[in-house]
From TrEMBL:
Residues 17-113 form the PatA-like N-terminal domain. It comes from the Bacteria. This is DUF4388 domain-containing protein. InterPro entries: PatA-like_N.
Length: 241
């Protein structure tokens, strides 16, 4: 027996029992097509919710303190649901969007939730001592958590890379060149060390270099990331003046 026939047979009952093994989206579309007016109680694991139909239109929903379209999005996305039908009294309409719109957007939201998270960057330590240095570990943890940093390099005060999150160290020489050039300019101009160095890259990303006491932090930022905000977060997180 098809899902539609099972559902149609159940709808004819005044007191509906529990319906299992039916896709909730298919069942609701059948209610819409047949222009039914009813209250649909939906159960899934320890969750429950109610969908209200009037002449085939989904007009309201309730689940765990939510109502309207937000509750409907939650309910229609449940898997392995059980359904019970009851008669319903007059109820004001809270949902204006058609059922198809709700089913489509609920499916889209579920797909987004199921997308795998991007793998965490692999941290490379140049020496065994670097792996156990508390201050360095703290810096790595802070930089790893800042959104907008594609990858970073940590250099000691002599310009040698001691740890990085990049897939390679191709930019190492460029970073050292920028730092040495900046240092030479400082000496020639007799000015204080720069608070940071910025450089725009061809692909739209940015190079951001922040000298700190005892180390130098170099970051490649994602395109359109705010250099100012990231610099502020780095300075605040490391708490080094």
């Amino acid at each position: 027996m098809t899902e539609e026939k099972v559902a149609d047979k159940t709808l004819r009952k005044k007191n509906d029992g529990i319906i299992n093994g039916i896709s909730i989206s298919s069942f609701l579309q059948m209610l819409e097509q047949e222009r039914h007016t009813c209250c649909v109680q939906v159960y899934s694991d320890d969750k429950s919710g109610v969908l209200y139909f009037d002449n085939g239109h989904l007009i309201d929903a309730e689940h765990n303190g939510l109502s309207g379209i937000e509750a409907a999005y939650r309910i229609v996305s449940w898997e392995n649901s059980s359904i019970a039908l009851n008669e319903t009294s007059t109820r004001p309409r809270q949902i204006e969007h058609p059922l198809g719109y709700i089913l489509l957007n609920a499916a889209k939201q579920q797909d987004e939730l199921k997308e795998p998270m991007a793998p965490k960057a692999t941290i490379t330590y140049v020496s065994d001592e670097a792996k156990t240095a508390g201050d360095l570990q703290n810096s790595v943890s802070i930089l790893s958590d800042i959104e907008g940093i594609r990858y970073f390099y940590l250099l000691n005060k002599t310009g040698k890379i001691i740890a990085h999150s990049a897939p390679g160290t191709d930019l190492g020489e460029l970073l050292v060149y920028c730092i040495i050039t900046s240092s030479n300019l400082r000496k020639v101009l007799n000015v204080k060390s720069p608070r940071r160095i910025q450089m725009q890259m061809k692909d739209g990303s940015s190079l951001l270099v922040i000298p700190k006491a005892g180390k130098i932090i170099c970051m490649i930022l994602e395109a359109h990331s705010s250099t100012e905000k990231i610099a502020n977060r780095v300075n605040a997180g490391l708490s080094v003046k």
